[in-house]
Design a protein that fits this description.
It is a single chain. This protein is an alpha+beta fold. It has two domains: about 5-205, Homing endonucleases (Endonuclease I-creI, Roll), CATH 3.10.28.10; about 210-255, no CATH class. Helix content is about 45%, strand content about 25%. It contains ten helices and eight strands. It has helices at about 5-15, 50-65, 85-95, 110, 115-130, 150-160, 195-200, 205-225, 230-235, 245-255, and strands spanning about 15-25, 35-50, 70-75, 80-85, 130-135, 140-145, 165-175, 185-190. A hairpin with a 4-residue loop joins strand 5 and strand 6. Helix 1 (about 5-15) crosses helix 2 (about 50-65) and helix 8 packs across helix 10 (about 245-255). The longest helix has 23 residues, at about 205-225.
Amino acid sequence: MNSRIAEILGLLYSDGTFREYLSSYIRYDKRRPNPYRANQIKRFIEFTNTDFRLLKHFKNIVNKEFEYDPQITHSNHNVFRVSIVKNTVLNELCKYIKKGKDNWVAPESIINGKNILKVAFLRGFFDGDGSVDFSNRGKIPRIRITSVNFTGIKQLDKMCKSLGLECNINGPYRSKIIDRRSSYELLFKTSSVNKFIRLIGSNHSKKRKRFRIILKIIKIAQVAQSGKALAWKASGACPFRVQIPTWAWKLNCNS
């Protein structure tokens, strides 16, 4: 187990698909007078996402780890996919993969392994099934990871807390769509937003852009804090509250 495989697994556990089916076709053989029908079991692993940058990143780490260069194909509705069909790569990845969104579990070598493995796995899973936005009318940054797999969410929670990231499991949330499974949410506390961005990060274009906005606001708060440190310590009040969101100021002034 290494960090590249850990990130590949995180991406596949969130937005990956394993398919195995029986293919029937007409085969021609010079040694036989007539063509005949043959059957073959085919299988492949597919990673799907709408972010082309993330697809290129997935393709690159697969290439670096296995010396195998899968192709990016375009599907419907701006969805891209990378399909892995090489048997040696499939055999290696299938050691860690259980079929079904409800059944995946993180390998023990990651859960109880080095921090670099946990970080890589969490980054991959967050890029697939995570989100970053602003709640409370756009005032407070919010980082979440969602899954229908409660066992998996508990494992993610354990890994995050071992890295010093504060988070809570919420749910289950029932879908309004009939026959869709209930989901669970791993919500990170505002006090851990800065650490999550710097430690876990993202390779997803839109999430990276939002991370940069949050870090810029935090940087402004840090500059204000350092410039007026003596003043607010003496008075007991934080300056520049009008220009800087309260959450960003608390991340610096209350530490």
